[in-house]
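Hi F.,

I've been meaning to write this up properly since the lab meeting, where we talked about keeping a consistent format for the predictions we share between groups. The idea is simple: the sequence comes first, exactly as it goes in, then the structure tokens exactly as they come out, then a line or two of notes. No screenshots and no reformatting. I'm using this chain as the first example so we have something concrete to point to.
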Amino acid sequence: MTRVLFLAESFHPVLGGGERHTRRLATALAQQGVPATVLTRRGDASWPADESLDGVRVVRVGPAGPGRTGKYAMVPAVLGALRRLQDQFDVLVVRGTRVLGLPGVLAARLLHKRVVLQCEVSGEMSGEIYTWGTAFDHGAVRALVRAGVAVRNGLFADADRLVAISERTREEFLDAGFAPDRVELIPHGIDVEAFRPASAPERTALRERLILPVEARLVAFTGRLLRGKGVEVLVEAFGRLAPRHPDAHLVLVGSGAGQVLSMEEALRARVANAGLGSRVTFTGRVENVADYLRASDVYAFPSYFEAMPLSLLEAASCGLPCVASRIGGVVDVIDDGRSGVLVEAGDVNGLAAALGALLDMPARGAALGAAARAAALARFDERDNVARYRELFLEIGT
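Output, unedited:
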């Protein structure tokens, strides 16, 4: 019997796409006879250090508290926990290479375990993610970072498999010199039954229950309100289209509270300063994301970096016409002009124009949304995703 341990920088109760995917995958594997454990950081001292969650054991190590440094400070505790748990897993799956990739691969080899690496965002293999949006994003530093990343990638070559969750991340692995037969392309999957289109009566009932304007045209964003997600671009774009679309209302589903890269306070201030307070809803942290999506008319996803955005998949599965940045794994989900609309990341005018056009032409939006739903059913059903992971783990774990 193959037993799997997922090593992740963060996990439940953190509500992010990667965290949700790991939880659902681990739970499904456990239900199918592949025992799963998650080893992660105890970001808050109130969280249990060891618990069972939907049949999955979750082990959390310190240090507690927010901050980027906590992710690196957790490495010694992670190594100690892996040694203690070595008799309880056969395959180590490392979610994200930036912090835990190298320690995970080295620990797996010392413990004689199989190891699978998976990128979380685009730019991990090239090194672009390390300098983007910082004061160090210039030629000399970028060159130095990329040289260091190349050395690290050479050590990653010892991994048994590398999982790419989009065509773009697969290309990054291949560009970094990994053999094609070691790279598995397994896109994220979503619950296509929970995330399904709503009928008109269902949409009205959801809006009433969620206290959203019933007669408005709702533009939704779902995800953490963090730097790099482009939510400030969306707020600016909404401000530009709002005068021409008096029935439009923006719903920002998620929070940045407690996160180092949080933009939430700045976004709230920007909305207030623009006089848009009555036309923008901040939901804060919620569990019922599907309800908000099913209550909406249009979806916006203006992120700068994404390997395979779970939030966008969920919106597509709900049959929403989506406007998204032409980046990373987004292009795996959205066929521009057929199942959604792509704009350049950071293009406020382009985003405003695309959203405005969909608000003006609901029939076109409905057609795009139907195509997005069909693509989700055909390519991103989580049952297929789980089956492929299970096959991979059983193959390398025996």
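Notes:
The mean pLDDT is 93.
Residues 127 and 143 are 9 Å apart (CA to CA).

If this format works for you, I'll send the rest the same way.

G.
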